[in-house]
Amino acid sequence: MKVLAFNTSPRKQQGTTDIILDYFLNGASEAGATVKKYYVTELDIQGCIGCFKCWTETPGRCIYRDDMDKIISEYLNADMIVFGTPIYNENITHYLQRMMERMLPLLLPWMEERQGIIYHPLRYRSKHQKIVLIAVSGFPDQRTFHHVRNLFPNALHILLPFGEMLRDPEGKELVKDFIEAVPVAARQLIKRGEVDQDIKEKVIVKYRSKVKKELMEIANRFFKEAMKT
Ligand SMILES: Cc1cc2nc3c(=O)[nH]c(=O)nc-3n(C[C@H](O)[C@H](O)[C@H](O)COP(=O)(O)O)c2cc1C
Predict the structure, then answer these.
(1) pTM over cut 0.90
(2) How far away, in angstroms, is 224 Cα from ligand 1 center?
(3) pLDDT by residue (tens digit) across 155-183?
(4) What are the structural domains of the chain?
(5) Which residues, 6 or more positions from 123, have their beta carbon under 8 angstroms from its beta carbon?
(6) Is 182 helix (H, G, I), strand (E, B) or coil?
(7) Residue 204 DSSP class
(8) Which terminus, N or C, of the chain has the lesser number of Cβ atoms within 10 Å?
(9) Alpha carbon of 226 to those of 4, 22, 207: distances in Å?
(10) How far apart are CA 42 and CA 32, in angstroms?
């Protein structure tokens, strides 16, 4: 099993997306998978200009020669794709959006309809890939993940509100179940192709109202202090 992961946080190793990605990738390695992680902000990826030449003049091939050449070939060969993103403006980061727009050559231009949903079929009959979405936010509630959940409806969702929890010993204790469940989810997905319902629930963290209020106060205090210095 080949697992290909993308960290799309510009904070790279300093961010909290990376911590969760590593929990997941360690679990996948333990289950025997080969894992590879890219920091998308380090890649040379030109923005799609919507010329559609990858559908017309050179079917399956973009006009740009950049790091997407190797990414697309590795993407097609992977059994599992893991997208890691912080929530920016209630959405994925623009780094992830840019990379995904450049996946247009992987689709055929034809429009088809299945169960009321219009879509473009895949150009290459690739093996069925598992998709995992890891997202972290600054706000302490699940509402901020609403849009990204819908962007990846068929993915396993690993969603941690107030990601800074992972840097604080007390915070880590509070999300202990989450920290333990993430590698278990990876192992189950690699070995069995599916994840138990109780594990799926544990990797989507929901804080009680009292905790949310406390986290808001901590965040507000932090920024007030930071502004003084
Ligand atoms: C430009 C920008 C926009 C953000 N927008 C949101 C948002 O809409 N909702 C939210 O909960 N957090 C938002 N955040 C906070 C990040 O999601 C949070 O800091 C996250 O932990 C960053 O992940 P990282 O540590 O991996 O970089 C935003 C942060 C930045 C820099």
Answers:
(1) yes
(2) 18
(3) 999 999 999 999 999 999 999 999 999 99
(4) 2-228 (3.40.50.360)
(5) 59, 60, 105, 106, 107, 108
(6) helix
(7) B
(8) C
(9) 37, 29, 25
(10) 27
